[in-house]
Design a protein that fits this description.
By secondary structure, the chain is of the alpha+beta class. It is built from two helices and six strands, in the order αββββαββ. 33% of the residues lie in helices and 24% in strands.
């Protein structure tokens, strides 16, 4: 988010929504105990698609600009594919 120019206070608000999150799993036999969630976005959150889009935008900027050693894609040569890297 910072790389996209999002102000720090907004980053902190979003981070606070994901700090110390717990959940439980419900099935036909009942509910599990609470456990911590360390990765991912909240299921059903209105913000999830926005956060996903922001991550993709940050990644696409890296690949559009290129960075030394960053993979830019695959090139087919002689029946096999090889990775091409940026050498900027």
């Amino acid at each position: 988010m910072r790389q996209l120019g999002v102000e720090e206070w907004i980053v902190n608000v979003i981070k606070s929504l994901y700090d110390n999150v717990t959940t439980a799993v419900k099935n036909m036999h009942g509910e599990s105990g609470q456990f911590g969630v360390k990765v991912g976005v909240h299921q059903g959150s209105v913000m999830s698609p926005l956060l996903f889009t922001m991550v993709l935008e940050a990644l696409s900027r890296v690949f559009r600009v290129g960075r030394r050693g960053a993979p830019l894609g695959f090139i087919a040569r002689g029946g096999r594919s090889e990775m091409r890297s940026a050498t900027v």
